[in-house]
Design a protein that fits this description.
Structural class: alpha+beta
Oligomer: single chain
Distance between the termini: 27 Å
Strand order of the largest sheet: 8-7-9-14-15
CATH topology: Creatine Amidinohydrolase
Mean pLDDT: 99
CATH class: Alpha Beta
Bound molecules: 2-amino-4-trifluoromethylsulfanyl-butyric acid, cobalt (II) ion
Number of domains: 1
């Protein structure tokens, strides 16, 4: 069952999403060589506390941090560390969510650290654009997999590959609700989209092979070929007037 949110509920989700967007942009400004991924986590916790927002990831399935920080070949769920210092040329995905007044918002961006390679720039650009290709399909009466297919075809036509092991999701009263939203698949499958559905769409895109593995810490997912990976995510609402991006 996929929840259909009332306009009042969507405004509550929007309030959480706006805090997520603002904190991600503050974190982005803070990213430069010499900063550690734990610095970013601690900043996210301070900013969330100022907004009286509860970090959504901390404690989720035992995850110990507020923020996921995935550097270079790390795909998702990278754990902040005092020892992980950012260097010029790195790319870092920061993924953050909050709960306010019982409603959740979730978003992610990938940010270059100083000057990065042309390949890294292209990967980030294509990953973000693929998110918007997916969002463009989030219209009433489209099928769920129209989102998935739009992302996959955009990404693969540009020579990059789609991670299969992690997916987007419904969101609202919990961080993860149904449906699951793969970033690949044929068009025209799955449920039809209805006004009031709220979805977190989140392509994870690799420069090389699509395969990922989870490290011994049981969280950090990395590319098997250790090539770069990027991740962008927005929480959106399906409306009669088209998709509304709540985390902008
Ligand atoms: N934003 C991610 C997601 O959508 C990360 C959550 S996993 C967590 O699913 F355990 F870190 F919370
Ligand atoms: Co998510």
């Amino acid at each position: 069952m996929i929840a259909l949110r009332s306009p009042q509920e969507i405004e509550k989700i929007y309030a959480a999403c706006q805090v997520v967007a603002e904190i991600l942009s503050r974190l982005e400004e803070h990213i430069r060589p010499g900063v550690t991924t734990l610095d970013l986590n601690d900043l996210s916790e301070d900013l969330a506390a100022q907004k009286k927002a509860k970090p959504a990831f901390k404690g989720y399935n035992g995850y110990p941090y507020a923020l996921c920080t995935s550097v270079n070949e790390e795909v998702v769920h990278g754990m902040p560390s005092r020892k992980r210092v950012l260097w010029e040329g790195d790319i870092i995905s920061i993924d953050f969510g909050v709960m306010i007044d019982g409603y959740y918002g979730d978003a992610a961006i990938t940010v270059p650290v100083g000057q990065v390679s042309d390949e890294a720039k292209a990967l980030c650009r294509v990953t973000e654009a693929s998110l918007y290709e997916g969002i463009r399909q989030a219209v009433v009466e489209n099928h769920l997999s129209d989102i998935s297919h739009a992302i996959q075809s955009y990404v693969e036509s540009r020579g990059f590959s789609v991670v299969r092991e992690f997916v987007g999701h419904g969101i609202g009263r919990r961080l993860h609700e149904s449906p699951q939203i793969p970033n690949y698949g044929p068009p025209g499958k799955g449920v039809r989209l209805k006004p009031g559905m709220v979805l977190a769409i989140e392509p994870m895109i690799n420069a090389g092979r699509p395969d990922v593995q989870v490290l011994e810490d049981h969280w950090t997912a990395v590319t098997v070929d250790r090539q770069l990976s990027a991740h962008f995510e927005h929480t959106i609402a399906v409306t009669e007037n088209g998709p509304r991006i709540l985390t902008r």
